[in-house]
Design goal:
Elements (H helix, E strand, L loop, with lengths): L1 H28 L7 E3 L2 E2 L5 H15 L3 E6 L2 E6 L6 E2 L4 H7 L6 H12 L4 E3 L3 E2 L2 H10 L1 H4 L7 E5 L2 E5 L4 E4 L1 H14 L6 E4 L2 E4 L5 H4 L4 E9 L5 H14 L2 E3 L4 E3 H5 L10 E6 L2 E6 L3 H15 L2 E4 L26 E3 L6 E7 L3 E8 L7 E13 L3 E10 L3 E5 L4 E12 L2 E12 L4 E8 L3 H12 L3 H11 L18 E2 L7
Parallel strand pairs: 1-6, 3-11, 16-28, 23-27
Antiparallel strand pairs: 1-2, 3-4, 5-7, 8-9, 10-12, 13-21, 14-20, 15-19, 16-17, 18-19, 20-21, 22-25, 24-27, 25-26
Helix pairs in contact: 2-3, 5-7, 9-11, 12-13
Length: 502
């Protein structure tokens, strides 16, 4: 029994000695990983720690071109893992791969080596990380692509039919929270290859109300004027102004300003030179004729019974609408404004074909079909043009030439007459004052007869046309000549100065 115990003790000591000897010899002789050791999918058996480090670095470089999709709603942007600053988060794995089965607890070493000899493998996982600042920069750089402005629901009219276009929800990337999410994904979930992160966003609801837009079907009011006898510049200005207003959508309770839409009056904004009113005279200016646009729209607004909050008459009478049915525009001075006082949006349609200007206002008709509305213009006073004489010392004595025609001055008011199922009411809408401008004549005073010249100059100073003709006949030095220049187009009416508001 004693010998048996001694033999067993000796055997244990020999085995322990053998393990210690084997371990120490491996530790002393080899600095390479055992066969069957892997780092991710890299077989590192027989590699030194430095070689494993290089293999891991090569692995990281291979992964850097991997595409990472950044999503924000329906918007997408692509970056690479390298753009995000990909690196290895556990470089200690290289040392662990070399030492496993060769250092440390004797029994564990024995068991590991035994498993490897039996064909089993040991795999170490790589952990990835990215540079937080690089990730933030990539998120910020792509916000222009990923962010999306909210858009309102809109209404268009095609081939006589209205089409409701739903709005779009806005999307804005939260850079801080999205950066943290990208870093967390690459660190904890991503194992290489194509990846994706849904970024943190803030949503902005689309504006507009598609249900209300769908109510816009009915013609509420329309206005038409003619401009075919205008100059090419004036025709251009009418067309440009109409196009700028065409398709405008005005929400319930919203105020619309014509001036805000059509200014500035310059070549860069599409306008040409054409006749307009300035300081009681007709002169060429950019945008001449734009008042016919605002006036024609005003007629449609009246018929639609929208609430007019600002309207001015012209300084001088125009002839494409009745008195007091006009609406002048002067940049910074005069405007046409009105409020949509209906229960649904209104849609303004404008067309100008070179001869006819037309505005139509569509919306939701709630007025009684048996109710009718009409407007009547009443001229309450008139003042005929007076003569204005100027001297031409180089023209033959007694020659009288009319160089421009004046405008009749007047006052007027507009009446709204409503017939509601046989009950008629009448109310005043506005009043207007139009300035009288003189007929301008030039009178020749070239003569050697000092008395005749003095008498004619006195008639000129008094703006007395009859007296001037009398003096011309009296001295009979030349036949009286009275010819008229072509009349300035009286429908050219862009208002220019504050004096025009008098």
């Amino acid at each position: 029994m004693k010998n048996s115990r001694k033999m067993r003790g000796l055997l244990v000591m020999l085995i322990a000695f053998a393990f210690c000897f084997l371990a120490e010899s491996v530790k002393a002789d080899g600095r390479t990983a055992l066969d069957g050791i892997y780092v991710e999918d890299i077989s590192v058996g027989g590699m030194t720690e430095e070689q494993i480090t290089q293999a891991v670095n090569d692995k990281i470089e291979q992964l850097k071109p991997s595409v990472i999709n950044l999503s924000a709603g329906e918007q997408n942007a692509q970056v690479t893992a390298g753009d995000l600053g990909l690196s290895c988060a556990n470089p200690e794995v290289e040392r662990e791969a070399v030492t496993i089965g060769q250092e440390g607890n004797v029994l564990k070493r024995f068991l590991t080596q035994n498993r490897l000899k039996n064909g089993e493998t040991v795999t170490f996982s790589l952990k990835y990380t990215v540079d937080g600042e690089a990730a933030r920069q990539e998120v910020e750089n792509n916000t222009a692509v990923l962010n999306r402005e909210a858009t309102d629901a809109t209404l268009t009219r095609e081939n006589g039919e209205f089409i409701v276009n739903p709005g779009q929800t806005g999307c804005s990337v939260n850079v801080d929270e999205s950066t943290a999410k990208v870093v967390n994904y690459l660190t904890t979930s991503w194992r290489g290859g194509i990846g994706g992160v849904e970024l943190v966003t803030e949503q902005t609801p689309a504006g507009g109300n598609p249900e209300q837009l769908a109510l816009v079907k009915d013609l509420l009011g329309e206005g038409t004027t003619e401009y075919g006898n205008g100059t090419s510049g004036r025709k251009q200005n009418v067309a440009v102004g109409a196009e700028k207003i065409n398709g405008t959508l005005v929400q319930p309770g919203e105020e619309f300003s014509v001036e805000a839409v059509v200014v500035p009056f310059d070549a860069e904004n599409g306008y040409a030179l054409a006749a307009s009113y300035e300081m009681g005279k007709v002169v060429d200016s950019y945008g001449g004729g734009i008042c016919q646009v605002s006036t024609t729209l005003y007629v449609a607004v009246l018929k639609a019974e929208l609430e007019v909050t600002e309207r001015y008459s012209h300084s001088m009478i125009v002839h494409y609408v009745d008195p007091s049915m006009d609406a002048a525009i002067a940049e910074g001075l005069k405007d046409l404004k009105f409020i949509n006082n209906t229960d649904a949006p209104i849609y303004i349609e404008a067309s100008a074909d070179g001869s006819t200007l037309h505005f139509a206002i569509y919306g939701h008709e709630t007025r009684d079909p048996n109710r009718t509305v009409r407007y009547e213009s009443e001229t309450t006073n008139t003042e005929d043009p007076t003569p204005s004489l100027t001297e031409d010392a180089n023209a033959s004595f007694g020659t009288i030439e009319q160089t421009s025609y004046g405008y009749q001055g007047s006052t007027a008011r507009l009446w709204k007459i409503v017939n509601d199922n046989g009950n008629e009411t009448k109310e005043q809408v506005n009043s207007s004052t139009y300035r009288m401008t003189s007929d301008v004549y030039t009178v020749g005073t070239k003569t050697d007869n000092a008395a005749a010249r003095a008498e004619m100059q006195a008639a000129i100073a008094a703006n007395d046309l009859a007296k001037a003709k009398e003096v011309a006949a009296k001295y009979s030095q030349s036949s009286s000549s009275s010819s008229s220049s072509e009349k300035k187009e009286d429908s050219s009416d862009t208002e220019k100065t504050e004096d025009d508001e008098d």
